[in-house]
What we know:
The complex is a heterodimer of chains A (190) and B (305). With 190 residues, chain A is α/β, with parallel strands linked by helices. Chain A has one domain (6-187): Rossmann fold. Chain A is built from six helices and twelve strands. Chain A has helices at residues 16-25, 36-40, 52-61, 65-73, 83-88, 181-189, and strands at 6-10, 29-33, 44-47, 78-81, 89-92, 103-108, 119-123, 132-136, 141-145, 150-155, 158-164, 167-170. Chain B is α/β, with parallel strands linked by helices and 305 residues long. Chain B is 41% helix and 15% strand. In chain B, helix 2 (39-48) runs parallel beside helix 4, helix 2 (39-48) packs across helix 12 (255-267) and helix 7 crosses helix 9. Chain B is globular. The interface between A and B is large, with 46 and 45 residues.
Amino acid sequence: MGGKRRIGVLALQGAFLEHQQVLARLGCEAVRTRSADDLERIDALILPGGESTTIGRLLVDFRLGDLVREKARAGMPVFGTCAGMILLAKEIIDSGQYRLGLMDMAVRRNAFGRQVESFEADLSLRGIPRLVHGVFIRAPYAERIWGEAELLAELDGKIVAVKQHKLLAVAFHPELTNDLSVHEFFLSMI
Amino acid sequence: MSEKREIGGNGMAEKGTFAVKKGLAQMLKGGVIMDVTTPEQAKIAEEAGACAVMALERVPADIRAAGGVARMADPTVILKIMESVTIPVMAKCRIGHFVEAQILQELGIDYIDESEVLTPADEKFHVDKTLFRVPFVCGARNLGEALRRIGEGAAMIRTKGEPGTGNVVEAVRHMRQVAGEIRWLASLPKDELMTAAKELQAPYELVVEVAETGKLPVVNFAAGGIATPADAALMMQLGADGNFVGSGIFKSKDPLRRARAIVAATTYFDDPKVLAEVSRDLGEAMPGIDIKTLVPTERMQDRGW
């Protein structure tokens, strides 16, 4: 791979600009991704936070979901935060909503409660030497993981970060802080 | 007001911080927040791809038609809507009515809109939003008004527009006004910012922040009169972070179809090909009102300061 790495950020709905800003700070070329052509131009993809049902609706309507799934299965690294974690899960508890279904985990939506329960906390994440600051907004967690999925972080006994080969999912929002370590960790997986 | 508690292993979790209040608004960006009055409408909105819904007893067009005093919705209506969808649910309290806000927080609503659509409870003071763990969104016609609301603790701003009219002209005016004033502030040397704060009637620290960053410190949505996919895309091209659509969806002929089209237009706001496609065959839009025909007391945007 010559030159800057081109990292796509799925730009259908949610906090995609924040991810693009973090990527720029890390010296990557951040690519606003919302078409089949955009997907052809990138080395890896970030699925941002937002509403998973909204992003799912648009992935279906604009026929991008199958393309993302194919590319991920062919080895494209994908990093999902919050709604992105939900979209990556094979199972979404109590929901038949659209998902990419790439990771061996069962995710519960809004698992910590509604907005008044949203919180910030420090946590340790395997592979990152210092504490990571997590902003959890109506956040999900994984109730179960199996198969190839690997537990990276727990908070209060809940699974909040999971890795599976070149796929990474976290329940919180590293893009809302000045802590670049989780993005650096993802870039090291590429 | 934030609240700390201990959690297993790693120390403390802090709830209700400004970062999590503002953070939810950041997650709503690029999305459409739709007014709904029943669980059935809420489900249609969710199915169409709304990123949140606003639970109301009546949409603004009906509030406008009914006249009288418009208040916070009955908690039963709000709770039923909260139970029917998984996306965030917002609700409105009257300007200055901090007890309605306390009730909404107790219900577990995700965002409170201190809204000029309802009849103000206080003509001088807005709610002190820093006292709440639930975040607030407030309307603004200009930069000074936006910064005063942020100064009171609002974690999200929207244009006021003129609600319930199906006429986007006032939302355009307010979005351009805020953007223009931000450009003006950003052009000033530091020693002129105190006078700028005086002219804007805005907190000095926030004026300095906007002058340095060239943008509002919180997310800024468009609201008030958006009725078509083209309206939604127009507001996005003018710099809105997302759209509130009030009466525009459920006062139209085919709400699901129109809602999906407005969602798509908000995402692909700068792609005329998509906009042309989703604007087709939507059925009739809501009937519109020329703002010039409103008498001063009918103008909702003049409520609050």
